Amino acid sequence: NAGVTQTPKFQVLKTGQSMTLQCAQDMNHEYMSWYRQDPGMGLRLIHYSVGAGITDQGEVPNGYNVSRSTTEDFPLRLLSAAPSQTSVYFCASRRGTSGSRDTQYFGPGTRLTVL
Amino acid sequence: GIQVEQSPPDLILQEGANSTLRCNFSDSVNNLQWFHQNPWGQLINLFYIPSGTKQNGRLSATTVATERYSLLYISSSQTTDSGVYFCAVGFNTNAGKSTFGDGTTLTVKP
Asked: What does each C-alpha distance from B9 to B6, B23, B87, B102 come to in angstroms?
C-alpha cells in the first residue's frame, strides 16, 4: 500500500491565484482530513470528511473548499490564494472512530508559499 | 472551549537521559494519539492510546482519561529522537475531528 499520498510536494502561488492540492489513500479509509501547520504550531483542522459525499468544516475553513466524490480522493481547493495561506498542508485518513480504527495516518505534506 | 495543552514546550537532553512529555485536555475523549514529527516534517504514529498504558521499545505512553491527561515517556534517549512530539485528541462532543496540541520540541544532544 502507498498509504496517504499528496501532490504537489511544493508550490508557489501569486496572490489571487487558485489551485487544488491533491490527496489520495489506498487503505479504504472512510475518514479523511486536511490540516495546515504554521511555523512553531500544531496542526489545525481545515475540513474533514466521514465518507464519500459527506464533508464538514474544521477549525480554519475560510478560503478553502473540499469535495469527496470517491472514498480514495479528497482534494483541497484554494479559491483565491492569500499570503496568510502560506503553510504546510497535511492530509490524513483513518478507518473509523471505533478503537484502533481511529488511528490517523498522514501524508508527507505540501509546502505552499503565496507571494 | 476545547483545549489541548502540551508541556514542556521545549526540552533539551543529553543522549541517554529519560524524559516525560505531558498532554492535558479539557473534555472527555474518544481517542488520543501521540505523533513524532521528524526534522524532515514527516508525522510518525507513536501510539493510539485513549486510555491505559502501552509500550513500544524505549517509548511508552499512559492516558488517564478520568483525569484528562496523557504522558509520553522516552527512555535512554537517542539523537534520532529529536523533533516535535504532538498529541492529537478526539473529543466525544466532536466525532470525527482531532485537535492537536502545540507540541513539545525535543533536542537530544550527543
From this structure: 7, 11, 12, 8
Burial status of residue B5 (CB atoms within 10 A of its CB: 0-12, 13-18, 19 or more)? middle
User: What is the per-residue pLDDT across B77-108, written as a single tens digit (0 to 9) for each?
Assistant: 999 999 999 999 987 766 678 899 999 999 99
CA nearest to A74, candidates A106, A43, A100: A106
Tens digits of per-residue pLDDT, B43-77?
999 999 999 999 999 999 999 999 999 999 999 99
- C-alpha distance from A43 to closest chain B C-alpha (Å): 6
Residues in chain B: 110
Residue window 40-99, chain A: list those with CB within 8 Å of chain B.
40-45, 48, 50, 56, 58-59, 88, 90, 97
Domain B4-109 has CATH 3.30.365.10: no
